[in-house]
């Protein structure tokens, strides 16, 4: 939950500031299907800052505890599923906050990857880097046309840690994953379908959600405990490895981001994003 200062003029005519709690995710459970939809709502691009990550984590936990039959993750933004980590969190960072951001990204990944109910991503817009991470942590992906998805870290001069890559490796043949990662390739929707990075294309967010519901429905007659244990069997090795390395991974991330040449690169990258946005 993030707090925002709202400004309003009170009865005395004085401007007052009021702090309100704003949730950056919503969870809606469909009464008929029992499926929960987790929607990210941090305009304009669902940049994963500390508050959004904390809210995603708490929404996943809410879904874990409310007996939902499945989880669909999507975005309230019309063009972007998630632009990945909020780059502002990495630029001239406060060290404690940066540590918390990476720890929460890890938490979100392992909670989503490890949840026992069926999961699906309705990818209603672009999903680079951390956006792709969320989608690949799920069991099924449906994406709208003319968007991009992938792990582009090498394009930014950085490497994606093993746990971030493991979702990719669950889905793509090793050969395709290695080439895509070394190239920092962002797949178009059509390419993603062709390579198997997504499972289906839908013409709208609504259709994407419907297709995710249909996927989750395929488990209706499967014993949920047997299903959950089978999923766990497939994912346990990656999770075990992740838990062994997670503390070292935070230290590595901090020392990478704090390197002067990386800070310089992030500054240039941010500038480029802003220039592109201003041209549009
Ligand atoms: C650069 C990182 C370098 C080093 C870090 C070191 C170690 C990290 C270890 C590995 C971890 C990686 C995880 C990550 O997720 S890194 C984040 C990578 N994300 C991206 O590269 C995506 C960048 N964004 C885009 O490509 C496009 O915005 C996108 C295709 C998603 C959407 O395009 P669209 O045309 O719809 O929107 P824009 O006009 O581009 O953007 C609108 C405004 O949003 C701002 N923006 C976009 N992305 C981000 C972001 N990730 N963080 C913060 N802000 C972002 C953009 O600047 C525009 O802002 P304004 O100018 O309107 O203020």
From TrEMBL:
InterPro entries: ClpP/crotonase-like_dom_sf, Enoyl-CoA_hydra/iso. Pfam families: ECH_1 (PF00378). GO terms for molecular function: delta(3)-delta(2)-enoyl-CoA isomerase activity. One of its GO terms (biological process) is fatty acid beta-oxidation. Keywords: Acetylation, Fatty acid metabolism, Isomerase, Lipid metabolism, Mitochondrion, Transit peptide. Its main location: mitochondrion. It catalyses: (3Z)-dodecenoyl-CoA = (2E)-dodecenoyl-CoA; (3Z)-decenoyl-CoA = (2E)-decenoyl-CoA; (3Z)-octenoyl-CoA = (2E)-octenoyl-CoA; (2E)-tetradecenoyl-CoA = (3Z)-tetradecenoyl-CoA. One of its GO terms (cellular component) is mitochondrial matrix. SUPFAM superfamilies: ClpP/crotonase. It is found in: Mitochondrion matrix. Gene3D superfamilies: 2-enoyl-CoA Hydratase, Chain A, domain 1 (3.90.226.10), 6.10.250.170. Pathway: Lipid metabolism; fatty acid beta-oxidation. Homotrimer. Key enzyme of fatty acid beta-oxidation. Able to isomerize both 3-cis (3Z) and 3-trans (3E) double bonds into the 2-trans (2E) form in a range of enoyl-CoA species, with a preference for (3Z)-enoyl-CoAs over (3E)-enoyl-CoAs. The catalytic efficiency of this enzyme is not affected by the fatty acyl chain length. This is Enoyl-CoA delta isomerase 1, mitochondrial. The gene is LOC6902773.
């Amino acid at each position: 939950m993030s707090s925002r200062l709202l400004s309003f003029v009170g009865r005395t005519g004085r401007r007052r500031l009021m702090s309100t709690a704003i949730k950056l995710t919503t969870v809606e459970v469909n009464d008929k299907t029992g499926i929960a939809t987790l929607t990210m709502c941090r305009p304009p691009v669902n940049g994963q800052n500390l508050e959004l990550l904390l809210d995603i984590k708490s929404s996943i936990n809410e879904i874990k505890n409310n007996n939902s039959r499945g989880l669909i993750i999507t975005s309230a933004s019309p063009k972007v599923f998630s632009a990945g980590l909020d780059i502002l969190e990495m630029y001239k960072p406060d060290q404690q906050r940066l540590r918390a951001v990476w720890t929460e990204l890890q938490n979100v990944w392992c909670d989503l990857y490890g949840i026992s109910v069926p999961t699906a991503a309705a990818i209603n817009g672009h999903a680079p880097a951390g956006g792709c991470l969320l989608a690949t942590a799920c069991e099924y992906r449906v994406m709208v046309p003319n968007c991009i998805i992938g792990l582009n870290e090498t394009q930014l001069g950085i490497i994606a840690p093993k746990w971030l890559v493991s979702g990719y490796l669950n889905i793509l043949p090793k050969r395709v994953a290695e080439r895509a990662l070394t190239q920092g390739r962002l797949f178009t929707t059509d390419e993603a379908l062709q390579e198997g990075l997504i499972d289906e294309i839908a013409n709208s967010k609504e259709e994407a959600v419907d297709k995710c519901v249909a996927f989750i429905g395929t488990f209706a007659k499967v014993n949920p405990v047997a299903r959950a244990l089978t999923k766990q069997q497939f994912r346990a090795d990656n999770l075990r490895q992740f838990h062994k390395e997670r503390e070292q991974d935070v230290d590595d991330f901090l020392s990478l981001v704090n390197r002067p040449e990386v800070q310089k690169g992030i500054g240039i990258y941010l500038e480029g994003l802003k220039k592109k946005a201003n041209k549009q």
